[in-house]
## 1
Amino acid sequence: MAPQQKQNMSPDIELNLALAVVASSAAPLLLLDGDLTLVAVSDSFCRAFEIDPGSVPGRSLRELGSGEWNIPQLHSMMKATASGFAKIEGYEIDLRRDGKEPRRLVLNAQKLSYGNEGSVRLLLSIADVTEARIAEKLKDEMLKEKAILLQELQHRVANSLQIIASVLMQSARNVQSEETRTHLVDAHQRVMSVAALQKHLATSKPGDVELRPYFTALCDSIGASMIRDHNQLSLDVTVDDSVTSADVSVSLGLIVTELVINALKHAFPADRSGGRIKVGYQSKGADWKLSVTDNGVGMSAGAPAAKPGLGTGIIEALTRQLGALVEVGDAKPGTAVSIVHTGIAQIANPVRSRAAV
């Protein structure tokens, strides 16, 4: 509409147009003047709040219904909007009516420009978000309940793993076969690595696992059961502030367990003194590197390749799952094994080990 046409529009035409627009709105709308007297309301408003359309024109906002719209704070904000000092956006109220459940409403109001400064019109739109708020509350309660159940499950799983680990260790002490004892001790350490993760998950934020305390607890557990003399052999952890998901941390923990057990079994024969194993982890964005380094006997260049054991297979599978590569090198002295992820999915190389794990 051209500005000249708008200025020449008669008040009656202007009013009729406003009434038609408001009345036909699918959303609850109220058109008010500067004194907060109702000029028009939409049929949808009357249906939603059970108000007789014939009783609306000429009444004030305070008088709507049975007085449930007589809300002092809303009245003050509407007057400020009429004066041009404010604009109501996303204002939430609870509409309370006798014999009915409260309704949660979101209000938006603005002053309309009619070209005639003496004719103030306010447009108030109303959205009933009661059901949405109830759904959000139920969702929050379900998430809280789920978190409690998950924490309880983690606690029970951790306890069960501890019991299994204890049974395996007790069995290892009682068997006569050295080979069987070795397999039971290995199984004990694998169970303990998962138990350490479960214990750490129980005290971590959902979905987040801090690797430094996790690897530290894991290596403490391995060292406590497999290192007889800590003055003769040390197991150190150097990890940055990296945080990762639970499923990735499980894979990393199992890899650390296998590599540390491998070093303890083969890097220091004949009670070799001054032994040191270092577990390290650093990340930068999507790139990360997990390393286990020892100062043991290393890998003999002329030694025949050992038949891959269970541990080697576990490392290969987990590395492939993480999309990383395995690098095995000479630590001079000793051996350095690194699991390297460069942010691009890769096929892991076969893991070479000094002996079958």
## 2
Amino acid sequence: MSVCKWIATSLLALGLAFASQLNAQDQSKQQTAPAPQTAPAPPAAKPADVASPDAILAAVYDVISGPAGQARDWDRFRSLYLPGARLVPTGPNKEGGGFFARTMTPDEYVGRATAFFEKEGFYEKEAARRLERFGNIVQVFSTYESRHDPKEAPFARGINSFQLFFDGTRWWVVTVFWQAETAENPIPKEFLPAAH
């Protein structure tokens, strides 16, 4: 055997041994890695809240709306969301330059919203909607208006992008992804209510 062949064979054997050792280490890590956490099952939903896309959207807006100090029905809120669902507010950075997107679980939203709702009235309603469906999935651009009192003019408007899922029995909210309107980014006319 030539020196070159001997070196090549030795390197190949060394490489195979090293790969085998790495594979054994990977298998060892996989066996000791903790199992992924699964989201807890939500409370049972009211059947009328999850019977259709219209119903579940109406329930989302209704459950977060009310006067200052009124406790929201957070179990009803949680019942609308698929385990692992996310709420994602987005907008311009306050420091200037660029935009943020923050993901929250329904429980994290509850934690943030509860203190605000204790001090401020908050009523949110849908002003216009664009819905598309394919099979068991639905995408909705839902234009919202936010008020401190239902008789007042909105203090904010924007678009909630809802992703909904039908499991054969009921509808679920998978994601709510939203952005508020700004002077620099007004809501386009196609997402506003049609003029009467």
